[in-house]
Fold this sequence. Notes:
Layout: H1 3-12, H2 25-36, H3 49-54, H4 59-70, H5 72-84, E1 88-91, H6 99-105, E2 112-116, E3 126-130, H7 137-152, E4 156-159, H8 165-175, E5 180-183, E6 197-201, H9 211-216, H10 218-224, E7 227-230, H11 238-250, E8 254-258, H12 263-270, E9 274-276
Parallel strand pairs: 3-4, 3-7, 4-5, 5-6, 7-8, 8-9
Antiparallel strand pairs: 1-2, 2-6
Amino acid sequence: MTRLEEGFLLLTSCLGEPKRKPLTTAQFRTLAQRVAGSERTEELRELEERDLLRLGFGQEMAQRILTLLSEEDLLHRYLHRAEVKDCRVLTRISLEYPQILRTRLGLDAPGCLWYRGDPELLQRDAVSLVGSRELRQENRMFAMEAGVQAAHQGYVLVSGNARGADSIAQNSCLNAGGSVICVVANELEQQEPSDDILYLSEDGFDLPFTAARALSRNRVIHCLGKCTLVAQCTYEKGGTWDGTVKNLRNRWSGVFCFQDGSEAVSALCNMGAGEIPLAKLHNLAALRNDEIGLFDQ
Length: 297
């Protein structure tokens, strides 16, 4: 791991310490933009207070950044614990970091992605699936078929490993001989490793579930796939709705909702999503969404 990669970790990860306050995505974005726009060429780890003050940070923020960067011993202990648990990390400047996240999210891409499993799955074509935890029967069949078709058509299935649509699609994909990327919102270290599953976590390898982590990981799920399939959604409620609306607003990936006649699907289509019946899953490569939605007006 290079010193610059260590700098990313020190600034963006809590390193197993709940009271540690790393930079938020917005704060790190500001730092990266200011460093990139300056004449400074040294690495982040070599920043001094005078550099940060010159970049426009106040003394309090400058000291906070320097304090985070100084905690090398904590970082090395955390990396050792992760290695024992067979967990690894990619920073946004690592060669193996998925380019699709850099392209679609820019400086809002996660500074670090912790993983357990085969990171080569990140380099393969993928489709994403999101959906409710409690599914109607027809929506359950859609999630199952999406998993099967992803496997048969050579796509990695990306989902959130939650109960309901996520688990149904993931299991059907694996049972059909496919591979899955699970973006988890609970402890990465507790996920069972497998040749066909890659587990990802944005914040660390040992952090418990929180609602904030669940919402934050949605952007990773939506951005890793060539398109995002929505098995079921509740109108203006829940993580599936929140993540899908943000996708449509930011045009991260094409969104295709199962054609179930629901109020939620109708609203999402007005925002630019496409509708898809079960039968159209047989050709995922052909999915194109040129709809003009609410956010394009």
